[in-house]
């Protein structure tokens, strides 16, 4: 991430993933570009003209979904939009974290800034103002099927603009009206098309997806560092990481991971050691030897996910879309979450694999039959002590849980709205599952790092430049000891270091 306290200007076309991170997890302020305001004004003028001329426009002068054929009288258009938002506030479950809510607000504002939604500039400015002032709607995380976008989550977001719903401000939960009053702004009265512009879109699933992708990319780098430490701890061989091996199967991710491990072990006296611990060993097992291929495939998957998400965050995703230059509104399906759903399932699988192979490396470090002469479970007094035995149990539990979570949400579809919306993406479920897997794998890698550094402490010898740097970081969070002790706090502390990018920054 770039330094905090930046300003992010929205034009609907140039928002970066780093911008989203700066707003979601940093303190960057948000504004609308003058160009965006001009485009929004033009599409808004078209909507107002269509209303004045009594044109039939879906969601503007008609009902929604299965009520598309119901004509709405001019005097009821504002009520129609308000009712849309309130009736769609039907989410359940734990609220999204604050960082996801901030990302959602930003992404929805950016989609509207593109200028195809027919919303008033003042309404989008209110959304941006609440984001800057720290008024965060409480948005339940469950209830979206990801078809007409994230209808329920975005409605909970929009409700606060109306003085409805609930929000958090300065750590306190309050009603939407009280939250607006606390920051000195008045509720908006939605005009024609505005409710639909606010709640039609993929911004809940995409917000979760942006943050999960960033964290997954950090995990990919961390996994290479962890693997390098394990390679040293078991006195493994460097040949599987040699450039020549990967030049003749030149997948980009594979090449990167191999190079990362080689750089991390540079200068090590442990890798390729020839002594009684390694006597008779010709090659390492797959969890070590195939690190470039497994980690690399996950890297390549994340590269594809990034491409899709970068497109999505700068897209218009509501319906209908207003094209004032063509003097028409086009009903389409840009709200459908399928592009995001598929890559979130892909991200989930790619990250789960980083966890699967990490747990196998941890198991090897603790198994006296496979750890090149280290004590069983790295216990100084096996029997009296259990060593780090239970650390592998925890890793095993997490990767097993991931095997349930990687069931592809996008493989399911349940029709809604009386079969008008008869194919849905389940993209928000896919994104939430991916985020859960990312959190689990972060801890799995934390466990490998703890076990590997303990093994290296017992082993002795010179570590590589990169692994030595990782050891210095780990000393901040764990007891460099072989004594039996509570491990939970150390696991959580190392997981926090991983999340902050401490280990990723070594590569």
What is the residue-averaged pLDDT? Answer: 95
Helix fraction bin:
40-55%
Label the CATH architecture of the largest domain: Up-down Bundle
Beta strands, count: 9
Instruction: Supply the number of helical segments.
Output: 18
Name of the level-1 CATH class of the largest domain: Mainly Alpha
Rg, please? 26 Å
| Class by alpha and beta content | mainly alpha
User: What is the CATH homologous superfamily assignment of the largest domain?
Assistant: Fumarase/aspartase (Central domain)
Overall outline: elongated
What gap, in angstroms, lies between the N and C termini? 15 Å
Percentage of residues in DSSP E strands: 5-15%
How would a textbook summarize the main sheet? 3 strands, antiparallel
Largest sheet strand order = 4-6-7
Report the uncertain regions. Answer: none
CATH fold name of the largest domain, please? Fumarase C, Chain A, domain 2
Describe the secondary structure blueprint for this structure.
Blueprint: E1 7-10, H1 17-24, E2 29-32, H2 34-52, H3 77-87, E3 92-95, H4 98-113, H5 121-133, E4 136-137, E5 140-142, H6 151-161, E6 166-169, E7 172-175, H7 176-182, H8 194-199, H9 203-233, H10 243-247, H11 252-264, H12 286-289, H13 291-312, E8 321-323, E9 328-330, H14 338-366, H15 389-405, H16 427-459, H17 465-474, H18 488-499
Parallel strand pairs: 1-2
Antiparallel strand pairs: 3-5, 4-6, 6-7, 8-9
Helix pairs in contact: 1-4, 1-9, 3-6, 4-5, 4-9, 9-11, 9-13, 9-14, 9-16, 11-13, 13-14, 14-15, 14-16, 15-16, 16-18
């Amino acid at each position: 991430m770039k330094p905090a306290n930046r300003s992010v200007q929205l034009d609907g076309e140039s928002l970066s993933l780093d911008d989203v991170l700066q707003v979601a997890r940093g303190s960057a302020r948000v504004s609308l570009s003058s160009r965006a305001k001009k485009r929004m004004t033009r599409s808004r003028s078209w909507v107002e003209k269509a209303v004045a001329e009594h044109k039939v426009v879906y969601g503007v002068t008609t009902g929604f979904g299965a009520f598309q054929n119901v004509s709405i009288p001019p005097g009821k258009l504002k009520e129609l939009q308000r009712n849309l938002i309130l009736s769609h506030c039907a989410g359940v479950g734990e609220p999204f974290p604050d960082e996801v809510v901030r990302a959602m607000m930003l992404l929805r504002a950016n989609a509207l800034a593109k200028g195809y939604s027919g919303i008033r500039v003042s309404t989008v400015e209110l959304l941006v103002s609440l984001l800057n002032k720290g008024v965060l709607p409480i948005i339940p995380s469950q209830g979206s099927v990801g078809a007409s976008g994230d209808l329920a989550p975005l409605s909970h977001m929009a409700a606060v603009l109306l003085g409805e719903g609930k929000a958090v401000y300065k750590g306190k939960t309050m009603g939407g009206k009280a939250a607006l009053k606390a920051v000195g702004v008045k509720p908006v009265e939605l005009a024609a098309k505005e409710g639909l512009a606010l709640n039609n879109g993929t911004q809940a699933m995409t917000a979760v997806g942006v943050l999960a992708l960033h964290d997954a990319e950090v995990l990919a780098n961390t996994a290479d560092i962890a693997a390098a430490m394990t390679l040293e701890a078991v006195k493994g061989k460097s040949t599987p990481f040699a450039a020549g091996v990967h030049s003749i199967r030149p997948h980009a991710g594979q090449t990167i991971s191999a190079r990362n491990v080689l750089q991390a072990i540079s200068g090590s006296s442990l890798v390729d050691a020839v002594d009684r611990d390694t006597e008779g060993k010709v090659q390492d097992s797959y969890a070590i030897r195939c690190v470039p291929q497994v980690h690399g495939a996950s890297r390549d998957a994340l590269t594809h996910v990034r491409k899709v998400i970068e497109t999505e965050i700068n897209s218009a995703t509501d319906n209908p879309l207003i094209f004032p230059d063509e003097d028409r509104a086009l009903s389409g399906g840009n709200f459908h979450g399928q592009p995001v759903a598929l890559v979130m399932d892909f991200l989930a699988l790619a990250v789960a694999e980083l966890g699967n192979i990490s747990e196998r490396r941890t198991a090897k470090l603790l198994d006296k039959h496979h750890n090149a002469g280290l004590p069983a479970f790295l216990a100084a007094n096996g029997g009296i002590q259990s060593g780090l035995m239970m650390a592998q149990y925890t890793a095993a539990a997490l990767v097993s849980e991931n095997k349930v979570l990687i069931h592809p949400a996008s493989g399911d579809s349940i029709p809604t709205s009386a079969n008008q919306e008869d194919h849905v993406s389940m993209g928000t479920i896919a994104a939430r599952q991916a985020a859960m897997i990312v959190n689990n794998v972060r801890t799995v890698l934390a466990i490998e790092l703890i076990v590997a550094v303990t093994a290296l402490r017992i082993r002795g010898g010179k570590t590589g430049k990169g692994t030595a740097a990782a050891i210095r970081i780990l000393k901040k969070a764990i007891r460099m000891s072989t004594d039996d002790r509570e491990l939970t706090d150390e696991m959580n502390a190392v997981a926090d270091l991983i999340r902050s990018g401490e280990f990723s920054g070594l590569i």
